[in-house]
Amino acid sequence: MKKTKDIFIHKTACVDKGAKIGSGTKIWHYSHISSKAKLGRDCKLGQNVYIADNVTIGDNVKIQNNVSLYEGVVLEDHVFCGPSCVFTNIINPRCLYPRNDKSFYRKTLVKRGASIGANATIVCGVKIGENAFIGAGSVVTKDVPDHCLVYGNPAKEKGWMCTCGEKLEFKEGKARCAVCGKGFTNEKGRVIERK
């Protein structure tokens, strides 16, 4: 076990020279962080996590076991990645015709507070909105709006989620979370927290 500047790196993990890691971050067994990766503060990376070059991860992000983040993936603050969820970065990979040129990479953006369930697949080039919720085993092929609950293959809109992670029930375009009490409006599929 290696501890530097209040960063915990398990002795089996590989952190390449040059990787930027924020204070309070913990990196567990057999994980690999590439040299040009950027991780924020207070992140938790489970076993066998791979972070490629030029991946950016915000603060307080939790990445469960067996997740690989390839170049082009950006996770904002407070994102949750469930066990074995999958990110891609090339839409049409071929072994016979390799796409080694980075111009083939498509950016995938996961906005603040979003949660991605176990074994979900995120096809490259999509944006997952703030506080969105991706159900376990889903295949996300298009953008997901803020606070939207999606699941299935392909993932489809199934409802709306509170910032705290509870499902919202809208009546006449308004909802109040039964757990935390936050209020929301839904205007033509755009969910906004009422201040």
Structure notes:
With 195 residues, the chain is an all-beta fold. It has one domain: 3 Solenoid (UDP N-Acetylglucosamine Acyltransferase, domain 1), CATH 2.160.10. It has strands at residues 2-4, 7-9, 14-15, 20-21, 26-27, 32-33, 38-39, 44-45, 50-51, 56-57, 62-63, 68-69, 73-75, 80-81, 86-87, 108-110, 115-116, 121-122, 127-128, 133-134, 139-140, 148-151, 156-161, 167-168, 174-176, 183-187, 190-193. The strands form 5 sheets. It has an 11-stranded mixed beta sheet with strand order 1-2-5-8-11-14-17-20-22-23-24, with no helix packed on it. A 6-stranded parallel beta sheet has the order 4-7-10-13-16-19, with no helix packed on it. Strands 3-6-9-12 form a 4-stranded parallel beta sheet, with no helix packed on it. A hairpin with a 6-residue loop joins strand 25 and strand 26 (183-187). The protein is globular and about 55 Å long. The mean pLDDT is 95.
Topology readout:
Layout: E1 2-4, E2 7-9, E3 14-15, E4 20-21, E5 26-27, E6 32-33, E7 38-39, E8 44-45, E9 50-51, E10 56-57, E11 62-63, E12 68-69, E13 73-75, E14 80-81, E15 86-87, E16 108-110, E17 115-116, E18 121-122, E19 127-128, E20 133-134, E21 139-140, E22 148-151, E23 156-161, E24 167-168, E25 174-176, E26 183-187, E27 190-193
Parallel strand pairs: 2-5, 3-6, 4-7, 5-8, 6-9, 7-10, 8-11, 9-12, 10-13, 11-14, 13-16, 14-17, 15-18, 16-19, 17-20, 18-21, 20-22
Antiparallel strand pairs: 1-2, 22-23, 23-24, 25-26, 26-27
